[in-house]
Amino acid sequence: MRIVADNTVPYLKGIAEPIADVRYLNSNEFTRENIQDADVLIVRSIDKCTRELLEGSRVKLITTATIGFDHIDTHYCEEAGITWKNAPGCNAVSVAQYVLASLLTIALRKNEPLRGKTIGIVGVGHVGKEVEKLCTAYGLQVLRNDPPRAEEEGENGFVSLDTIAREADIITFHTPLTKEGRFVTHHLANEDFFNKTRRKPWFINASRGAVHDTPALLDALKSGKISEAIIDCWENEPNIDRELLNLAAVATPHIAGFSADGKANGTRACLQHIEFFFNVKIEKLGEVIPPAPTDPVIDLDGVTDRPVEQAILRTFNPLTIDKALRDIPERFEWFRANYDHPREFAAYEVKNATAEERIIFNQLGFR
């Protein structure tokens, strides 16, 4: 078996080699010539699997170590008999961690409480569920909008997008990017949506850049319809809008799902798809594990000032990568490829928390 893999897919090197000839490429090396003899591609969102790339190749399976799959021409794959597989849910906890840490960063900067605010979650799939779990654990009220789920499960527990716009203090988007069909999400956050907001909410896009309409969002920020923006996903990446970069409270280079745990989950999913598709066993699959944190113990002994918040921001503080992006936005893709992947809450042990704090930490997923 011949596998061509993006060389930035983490924890992959040496794992599939016992059963396959594996070649690692930079994303700009994914050319027709370089992949024509491959049976399998292991890719990231930067690797565009188009008709032009795939036509005439012997590729049978494309696996992407990501939730999203809009970098794969699925219509062509179906036409050509190429199976494609993504990794749904692989980085859901990572994105939720990003959302909560970013919200805390703004709340601390503004010196106002986050607990008790109402967060509207648009898209309550793998990621949205984890966002709901963490936000509920921290003490936010949650409104859920997910038309496909509401249609399938019944409307109880779900609200309309208009209700989110009217009643939420914070609005966060976790939908796939769809441009056709009954549930189009392209520019779902548009001028009409922002005009319906009533509480000057904080706005988060950690899903796909084109879920928001950039000129409409800029207008909403400048007119005060939106008071704060947390932007991880941008239209036209990596050529991001500099005005939005300047106006955003937290700006990051599409790394919300880039925890070490999420990366390991994505890599593991790709390998499991290969096992299933070719009916083979990858013996070293169990070795796809992220390294332990540098300091996995968070000791709250003597910490009296916002201990829960301090512990959360110890695991991930968005301001480090935020500053790097603002300093050199041209290096958007470099920051992604060279990101220092944080570990998720479950990799940390908290000591000397109060009984009340322990309940919160357990619900958040800390040890």
In words, what does this structure look like?
This protein is of the alpha/beta class. The chain folds into three domains: 2-86 and 259-287, Rossmann fold; 92-251, NAD(P)-binding Rossmann-like Domain (Rossmann fold, 3-Layer(aba) Sandwich); 297-364, Ribosomal Protein S8, Chain: A, domain 1 (2-Layer Sandwich), CATH 3.30.1370. Helices cover 37% and strands 14% of the residues. The protein contains 15 helices and 13 strands. The chain has helices at 32-35, 51-54, 74-80, 92-110, 126-138, 147-153, 161-167, 191-195, 214-223, 242-247, 260-278, 307-315, 319-327, 332-337, 355-364; strands at 2-6, 21-25, 40-43, 61-64, 83-85, 118-122, 141-145, 170-173, 202-205, 228-231, 250-251, 297-299, 349-351. Strands 7-6-8-9-10-11 form a six-stranded parallel β-sheet, with helices on both faces. Helix 8 links the parallel strand 8 (170-173) and strand 9 (202-205). Helix 4 (92-110) runs parallel beside helix 5 and helix 5 runs antiparallel to helix 15. The longest helix is centred in the N-terminal third of the chain and has 19 residues, at 92-110. It is globular, with a radius of gyration of 21 Å. The two termini are 41 Å apart.
